[in-house]
Amino acid sequence: MSRELLNIVEAVANEKEVDRSVIIEALEAALAAATRKRYPDEEIDAKVVIDPRSGEYKSFRVWTIVDDEAILENPDAEMRESVAAIEYPEQNLHVGDVLEIPIENEPFGRISAQQAKQIIIQKLREAERRKVYDRFIAEEGTLVHGIVRRYERGNVIVDINGAEATILRDGMIPRETLRVGDRIRGYLAKVNLEMRGPQLEVSRVAPEMLKQLFTLEVPEIGTGIIEIMGVARAPGVRAKIAVRTFDPRIDPVGACVGIRASRVQGVMNELAGECIDVILWDEDPETYVRKAMAPVQIVDTAIQTITNESGETRRVMHIAVPEGKLPQAVGRGGQNVRLASELTGWTINVLSEAEFEARQEAVQDAQEQALAEALDVDDEIADILIDAGYTAPEMVAYAERDELLGIEAFDEETVDALMARAADYLLQQAFVAEVEPEEEMQLPLENVEGIDEATIAALQENGLHTQEDLAELAVDELVAYTGLDKEQASALILKAREPWFRG
């Protein structure tokens, strides 16, 4: 039997081009499984060791030494330390040690051979995947060449130097036709060692593929003279790529496009005719967005910061384009503005000139109203401040006094009053922010915005002294206590309840 085992090992190892140790491990596992089946009423742990030179093998029952106080999870494979000390004193066993007791060998029969076959197949698969992994892991994130071999469940199987790679359906360029035998390039997106899923995953739509292709076509990118700052793709249709250089002698856009567009055309041909806009990167966001929206000219821009309920902020750039150019700016299906947004990292809102002006007027009116309320001034003074660049109370409070005096319409008294009011407003806001809703509700009635002294007196006469007392009243009750009409009473109660909604 020893010679038979060695013959099996040699035959499989030579056929599959794998190390003999892999086959021996599989045979050992198969014989161990067969050995365990000799003990149908026990859950023993078995081990088989094959001599790679002679083919002889030995079988062992394996025990794990555990603490005397421990609960035995598997009494058939665990032995307490005190028991081991009595029965096998010569072994000097301690907790965590493994005791191997020789047992009778299981004959290598039909069942063992079947189990060995299954285990060998599994081991071979693992070994082959390991070989492929070791071979390609260094190429992950690079371009690879391959030949289309077949279609499988909508995916394309590509041969890459003798190894099979998969282009998933969502990794293929839409409407691109690939035929068996076609030579293609792809971006090696993932090298997987696990048994599940494709081992080599290739993409034709990844933005990184565009970067890699330009690196091949444009030597200046490969040498670091030109740097790719961003890529956005609508695969097979259009793409935008932003580049820059620190060498003033180099035109990065021209270098990427090439003489008579030869370089960019080479990339486009590889990507099924995908149109590519090469854009000069700029550190100024507005300038960068203007270039990213090419070929449409931007008339004006405005930046807005939006904060959601969870406190996360996003920045939106509103842009105005000439009348009649709105469809071109947006692009088919919003493609142009979407790619520009992806490239620049900005949320871009495209408006016509008329819409942009109307929005700016609305924003200015809102700023004017908010500033007027915060500083307790009329709209005219608020408008003067906004025109001078002071759009928020913070800007007025922390402004240089001489700068405010530089505004023609303001004298020293006005400036001092405005700065004092702005400081008071900020102090009040800070106080409100620090007060918890529960604490705020316990503040006196004077804290409620819009309440007058007569109303306060009437409520106090009825034993109501805090904001919470007022908030808990019904409209009819407040009318009865104070003589206010229902509309006034409702508005006052809603004001008193505001901390509840903020909390």
Oligomer: single chain
CATH class of the largest domain: Alpha Beta
Structural class computed from helices and strand pairing: alpha/beta
Strand order of the largest sheet: 5-6-7-9-8
Question: Which regions have little confidence, pLDDT < 50, spanning 5+ residues?
Answer: none
Average pLDDT score: 86
Q: How much of the residues is beta strand, in percent?
A: 15-25%
Q: How many domain units? A: 5
CATH level 4 superfamily of the largest domain: NusA, N-terminal domain
Terminal Cα span: 81 Å
DSSP helical segment count: 21
Helix content: 40-55%
Annotated CATH architecture of the largest domain: 2-Layer Sandwich
* Structural Rg: 39 Å
CATH fold annotation of the largest domain: N Utilization Substance Protein A, Chain:P, domain 4
Tell how many strands the DSSP assignment holds.
15
Can you put this structure into words, describing what you see?
The chain is of the alpha/beta class. The strands form four sheets. Strands 5-6-7-9-8 form a five-stranded mixed barrel. It is built from 21 helices and 15 strands. It folds into five domains: 2-129, 2-Layer Sandwich (N Utilization Substance Protein A, Chain:P, domain 4); 140-205, Nucleic acid-binding proteins (OB fold (Dihydrolipoamide Acetyltransferase, E2P), Beta Barrel), CATH 2.40.50.140; 292-375, GMP Synthetase, Chain A, domain 3; 376-434, DNA polymerase, domain 1 (Orthogonal Bundle); 437-502, 5' to 3' exonuclease, C-terminal subdomain (DNA polymerase, domain 1). It starts with a helix and ends with a helix. A hairpin with a 6-residue loop joins strand 1 and strand 2. The chain is flat. The model has no long low-confidence stretch (mean pLDDT 86). Helix 1 crosses helix 2 and helix 9 (285-292) packs antiparallel against helix 11.
